[in-house]
Design brief:
By secondary structure, the protein is mostly beta strands. Among the domains are: 227 residues, no CATH class; 149 residues; 44 residues, no CATH class. Helices cover 3% and strands 50% of the residues. It is built from 3 helices and 51 strands. It is elongated, with a radius of gyration of 29 Å.
C-alpha cells in the first residue's frame, strides 16, 4: 500500500451534461498519476509445485491400519498402581487403572488394546517408549480411555519410534508438564477420537497423518499439531515434517499454532475449528531479549482492551506491542537445515517447495496471528468452506497463493489474501480488510509480483487499497467487486506495472485522490468515472444501456467518488449510463478501450431503484453477474 503525498491532479475527464446536473463542470481526475493508463505488463501464471505434492500425499492408504484391531491372543495385564513394563513384542490388553506403562528393551513391535484403561503417572512419562527408536506401536481404542501425566517437564505419551491409534473408541491425554503426545517418527490416527490437553504441544511428531478421526485439543501452551523434521535432516523432503489430514474433525484452542508443519500441510475433507490466542507484550528491552523480538515485530497498538495491527511506517505515538510467540491458524515452513560441512552454519531452503494444500473441508479459524500462512512456499486452495477472523493476514504465502475453488469468507483481517504472486481462478471469496484486500508483495528481489483474477467471484471491502500489486494486475475472467478505502491516500486498484483487463466483470469503487485507470493495452472496454461529490454508502450503482436497462450492479457499502467498471457487454459506439439509485450520474459513449467520464451532478436517494429492476438490480431482478 503506497503512502504518497497527493500532488496536482493531472487528467481532465470529459464532461457529462445531464438533465440531473443542471450545469456543466470540468472535473479533474488523477487518472494516470500512479501508473494507471499507459501500457501495462501482462504476467504469466507462476510455477506451481502443489501438483507434485498432491501426488505424494493423495494416495495415502490407511486400510491396513484401520483393520488391525483384533485382540486375538492378547496378554491381559492386571490393573496395578505401579508402572507395568512390557518385556517383549506382542499384543497386550489393558482394562482398569495403571500407574504407567513402560516399553522394555525387546518390545519393538507392540499392539496395545485399551478397553476402559486409565493410566496416571505423577513422577514420569505415563506411557514411556522413549528409549526405542525402532519401536512400532499400534494402540487400538475400545470405549473410553485416559492417560494423565502430572510430572513436571515430562510428556504424557512418548514413543521414540512410530505410534498409531485406531479403533472406534476414544482416548483423553493430559500432560501438565510438557507435550500430550510426543512421537519421534510418524504418528498415525485412524477412526478413533483423541482429546488432548498439554502445557506444550498437544501433538509433536516427525510427521502426522490422520483419516476419519476426531482430534480435539482442549488447550495447548504451544501448537495443537506440530510436525518437525529430524535434527539430522539436511535437505528438503516430503518424507517427514508434514501434516496429512483426510476427513478429520479437528478442533483446538492454543497459545501457539493450530497446525504447524515443517514441509507440507495437506488437508482434504473434515471439519476444522481452530482458535489461537497470542499474548501481546510491550516494546521494552527486557521483552525483546526474553522473547527474541526485533523492532519489526512491534506492529500493534492497543485499541481499548484489544490490539490493532498498524502499517510498518506508522507515525503515531502510541505504545507498540508484539506477539510473544507465533500463533497462526495453519502454518508451514520455513526451516533451517544444518550444513554438513560446517555444523555451526545453517542452510535456509527458500525454493518454494513448502506447501499448504487444501482440497476440501469446513474451516472456522479465529487467530491472533495469520490464519493460513505458507512461509517460503505455496498456498493452494481448491475447495472447502472458510470463515476466517484474524488480527493479521487471512491467507498468505511468501511465493504463490492460488485459489481455484471453495467458499472463503474473511470477516476480519489486516490484509485478506497475500502472496508474492496471487492467482484466483475459481471459488467465492469475500474479504474484509483493515489494510489491503488482496496484495502481491515480496521481499525476494527475484519475484516480480502479480495478481491474476481469471475466474470465481471476488468481493473486497478494504480500508487500504482494495487490490494492490507491487508488480502487475491482470483481470481476465470471473466477477470482481471492490469497495476500496474512503481515504484519498489509497485507491480501489493499485499496481506498479499496470492493470490490464482482458475479460470478466469488474466493479470497483473508491475515493478520487489516487484513482488508477487500467492500462490502454486492455482488450476489454473499461469505464473510469469520478465526481466531486460523494456517493452515499448503501447506494445501488448500476451500469445500464441507453434505455436504462441494468447490465451490472453493485451496492457500495461505503461512501465513494470514483467507479471503475468493465464487462463483456460493453461495445464500441454504444451509449451507456451509470445510475446511483434512481438518478443518472452520467451518460457516455464507448469510443476507445479506456473511457473516462465525470460530473458534479447530484445523486438520487440512497438505495433507490434504477431502471431494469427493483433496488438497482440487474435483469430479472437479480444482481449483476454474481452481484452484490
Amino acid at each position: 500500500m503506497k503512502r504518497i503525498i497527493i500532488l496536482l491532479l493531472t487528467l481532465s475527464l470529459s464532461v457529462c451534461v445531464l438533465s440531473s446536473c443542471g450545469k456543466e463542470e470540468n472535473f479533474v481526475n488523477p487518472g494516470d498519476y500512479l501508473g494507471g493508463g499507459g501500457t501495462g505488463e501482462i504476467a504469466d501464471s507462476a510455477d506451481d509445485v502443489t501438483g507434485e505434492m498432491k501426488d505424494a500425499f493423495s494416495d495415502k492408504d490407511f486400510t491396513e491400519l484401520s483393520e488391525n484391531t483384533s485382540a486375538d491372543g492378547a496378554i491381559t495385564v492386571a490393573p496395578t498402581d505401579d508402572v507395568y513394563t512390557i518385556s517383549k513384542s506382542g499384543t497386550y490388553l489393558f482394562k482398569g487403572k495403571y500407574g504407567g506403562i513402560s516399553l522394555g528393551a525387546d518390545s519393538l513391535k507392540l499392539h496395545l488394546i485399551f478397553d476402559g484403561a486409565e493410566i496416571k503417572s505423577g513422577a514420569a512419562i505415563a506411557l514411556n517408549g522413549a528409549d526405542h527408536k525402532k519401536a512400532e506401536v499400534v494402540m487400538t481404542l475400545v470405549g473410553e480411555n485416559s492417560i494423565v501425566s502430572t510430572a513436571e517437564g515430562e510428556n504424557a505419551v512418548h514413543v521414540k519410534g512410530a505410534l498409531s491409534f485406531n479403533g472406534k473408541g476414544s482416548l483423553s491425554v493430559t500432560s501438565e508438564g510438557k507435550n500430550a503426545i510426543k512421537v519421534s517418527k510418524e504418528l498415525s490416527v485412524v477412526d478413533c477420537s483423541l482429546t488432548l490437553t498439554a502445557a506444550n504441544h498437544a501433538i509433536s511428531a516427525l510427521s502426522v497423518s490422520a483419516a476419519n478421526a476426531k482430534i480435539n485439543v482442549l488447550s495447548a501452551g504451544k501448537d495443537g499439531i506440530n510436525a518437525e523434521c529430524d535434527d539430522e535432516t539436511i535437505a528438503f523432503t516430503t518424507a517427514e515434517g508434514y501434516v496429512f489430514l483426510k476427513n478429520v474433525d479437528y478442533s483446538c484452542q492454543t497459545a501457539g499454532d493450530g497446525i504447524q508443519a515443517d514441509t507440507v500441510v495437506y488437508l482434504d475433507g473434515g471439519n476444522y475449528n481452530i482458535k489461537t490466542s497470542g499474548i501481546f507484550v510491550a516494546d521494552t528491552a527486557q521483552n525483546r531479549t526474553e522473547y527474541e523480538l526485533s523492532a519489526d515485530d512491534f506492529r500493534y497498538i492497543k485499541n481499548g482492551n484489544d490490539y490493532q495491527k498498524v502499517a510498518s511506517d506508522y507515525m503515531g505515538r502510541d505504545a507498540m506491542y508484539a506477539l510473544a510467540q507465533g500463533c497462526k491458524g495453519i502454518k508451514v515452513g520455513e526451516i533451517e537445515y544444518p550444513d554438513a560441512s560446517d555444523p555451526d552454519k545453517e542452510i535456509t531452503v527458500t525454493e518454494g517447495d513448502y506447501s499448504i494444500i487444501i482440497e476440501g473441508g469446513t474451516f472456522i479459524i479465529d487467530s491472533t496471528d495469520d490464519a493460513i500462512h505458507a512461509n517460503s512456499g505455496t498456498l493452494s486452495v481448491s475447495g472447502g468452506s472458510f470463515t476466517i477472523s484474524t488480527y493479521d493476514d487471512a491467507l498468505t504465502s511468501d511465493v504463490l497463493t492460488k485459489i481455484t475453488g471453495g467458499e472463503i469468507t474473511v470477516t476480519k483481517s489486516y490484509e485478506g489474501i497475500e502472496g508474492g504472486y496471487v492467482e484466483i481462478f475459481g471459488g467465492t471469496i469475500e474479504i474484509t480488510a483493515q489494510d489491503d484486500g488482496i496484495n502481491a508483495a515480496s521481499d525476494d528481489t527475484r519475484v516480480v509480483e502479480h495478481i491474476i483474477i481469471g475466474g470465481g467471484e471476488v468481493y473486497v471491502n478494504a480500508s487500504g487499497d482494495g487490490i494492490d500489486s507491487n508488480g502487475t494486475i491482470l483481470i481476465s475472467g470471473g466477477t470482481t467487486y471492490v469497495a476500496g478505502p474512503t481515504s484519498n491516500m489509497d485507491c480501489s486498484i493499485d499496481s506498479e506495472r499496470g492493470t490490464v483487463v482482458t475479460g470478466g466483470y469488474l466493479f470497483a469503487v473508491g475515493p478520487i485522490g489516487m484513482v488508477e485507470t487500467p492500462a490502454q493495452n486492455s482488450t476489454q472496454y473499461v469505464v473510469s468515472f469520478a465526481r466531486s461529490e460523494q456517493i452515499a454508502a448503501g447506494t445501488n450503482l448500476s451500469l445500464t444501456d441507453k434505455d436504462g436497462n441494468a447490465i451490472f450492479t453493485f451496492q457500495t457499502p461505503k461512501t465513494c467518488q470514483s467507479v471503475i467498471l468493465s464487462c463483456p457487454e460493453l461495445e464500441k459506439g454504444k451509449t451507456y449510463q451509470i445510475y446511483g439509485g434512481d438518478s443518472s450520474l452520467c451518460e457516455f459513449t464507448i469510443s476507445q478501450i479506456i473511457t473516462t467520464v465525470g460530473s458534479s451532478g447530484g445523486i438520487g436517494r440512497p438505495g433507490g431503484t434504477a431502471p431494469g429492476g427493483p433496488g438497482g438490480m440487474g435483469p430479472g431482478g437479480g444482481m449483476g453477474p454474481g452481484g452484490r
